[in-house]
Amino acid sequence: MYKQGISKIAVLGTIIAVVVIVAVAALITLGGQQPAPTSTHSPSPTPTIQWPEKLLGGGATFVNPLMQKWAYEFKREKGLFGVDYQSIGSGQGIAKLKEQAVDFAASDAPLTRSDWEGLKNVRGGVIQMPITIGSVVAIFNIPGLDELKLSQEVLLKIFDGSIKKWNDPQLVELNPQLENVDKDIIVVYRADRSGTTFIWTDFLEKVSKGKFPRDLSFKLPDEEVEKARFIGAKGNEGVTEVVKNTRYSIGYVELSYAVLSGLNHAAVQNKAGNFVKASTESVVEAVRSIIEHLKLPDPLDDWSTVSLIKLEPPSPNAYPIVSFSYVMLYVENSPEKAAALREFLAWVYQKGQKYVADVPGYAPLPDNAAQIGLKGVSYIRLT
Amino acid sequence: MTTVRKSIFIFLGGFALFLALILPLYFFGELYGASEFFSKFSFLDFILGREWSLSEQKYGALPAIYGTLTTAGLALLITMPVSIAAAVAMTELLPEWLSEKLGIIVDVIAAVPSVVVGLWGIASLGPFLSDTLYKFLVENLGFIPIFQTTTLTAYNKLTAALMLGYMITPFAVSVIKENLRLVPMEIKEAAYALGLTKWEVIRITLSYIKPGIFAALMLALGRAVAEAVAVSMVIGNTCSFSVSLLEPACTLTTLIINNFAEATGIEAAALIGLGLVLFVISILMVLVSRLIYGKLLGGYMR
Fold first, then answer.
1. Among the four residues A262, B93, B168, B259, which has the most C-beta atoms within 10 Å?
2. Could you read off the pLDDT of B107-120 as tens digits, one per residue?
3. Do A67 and A125 share a structural domain?
């Protein structure tokens, strides 16, 4: 009798457990796919426009510090609605945009041509516009050496593994102090996929005339014995930390991380033949000079072939390894979201630029690039 | 009263079944996730492939499997003598007040988040070892393949193994200590009464708790196999097969956490395949340790 009771209870327990599991699983799955909650009666200072509670953005980790700064200042200044930006990586940002799970995405790489074509007829197509400038620098750790000059060819050869030692004649020619540094070059790269690697390999691809593949992940040299010189680290922080603690190493990070870590970074030869170190000025100068001389696509066009690196900044004071970081959004949005997107992005391209200097390592957009952004904002429509 | 008891039974039964159900669900979930990958690549090529390279579409799990087995195995080798010695010292040899303080310290080590240990590994442990121990190994024992390297850096399997050894020791110590406490006083008293020395008595108590020590070490090994964050910070993450312990490498868990967030399509499926391999390794580990545990227990009973 008692035993029977137990087994009945056990069966009942099982059923309950299964129901609970299914319910929880369903909640998790459905909950994850729901778009950002919008409130229909949020208090707004202007009675004619209904503001959403918040805008939901996601994507590149590179722009994250800047986005958080903008979201904070925007809310403080206008108090209309919040902007929630999630730093989930460029690839995930684009994936969320395709799923229509975010109001806008940010990415270090523009949409590929096939993605752009695929989204052409979805909600009026995708607007892509530069939001800020990224630049990637070569940080190095050579005891007693503060300045390092690298031609583009030499930089490629270090990262494809063909220059193996610091006293290689090609390096000594540019940096006579390296003559007695008979040490292996230890190359530190990003082990995770990242926009930083995308910018860096875009550069290596240009210099190698297409031999080094441009990708979100770094390609190691082919010979197995060579790989002991290559250390992978996670995130800009990881690369910085490994270079800092490894003598005779060189790695690549976004400029802001080089500035914050206090590590030295190399001066790279530009198109005009000058060796230029990355700085806010030399990076802005690079973008300004490119837009002055060359025509960039319309925000509704395909940007996949646009590469500031391949356009080679013509100015003699420009740092050559620069790239746009993009914001992407659909043309058609619900009335509330459209109004909010216009309000926020127009603010970013105008007043927001003055906050860029507060975040170390970021460069404000030159005026001619901000114009492209404002043009993109003007394309936003209501459904 | 009975309704309370009934609802407790329902709860307990439900949870037990929940745990039992999760296992197959998890296994088939992984299998399903990896099916896209295995429809294009053969399983053998997967586990014997010598390189994992995204840009070249090479998905070889061998370096990761070797990395996981060597780092966790070495960590276990380090933990074994250290944790047994520490537990014996704290229960049998040291004065009460000191072993109590040591116990607190051991618990604190166990509670340090792995990211923090990883940072310590990157900034202090790795560079220190490469200037001292590794330099010595390469210069004097470089003829052994596992200590061979063309370029010595601080980030490799041995750094990961030593760090893991440090991380998992507190768990083993705690469990072994509890086992030592449970040894009946009569056994020790009888041993002393026979005129045995302290050293001989400790040997007897240790052989008495053999199954407990084994269980403690398995617990520690499980943690070593599963650790991802801290290991990925010091292992160098270059996923190309090399026998050497002093070259940058990867493990199953580090490959997954480094790449999964941004992985799509075939790569995501391949990473889930790695999860499956890890799952099978864990299951095998549990089964083998059950077998050995049973033997140890049986030996004692007889």
1. B168
2. 999 899 999 999 99
3. yes
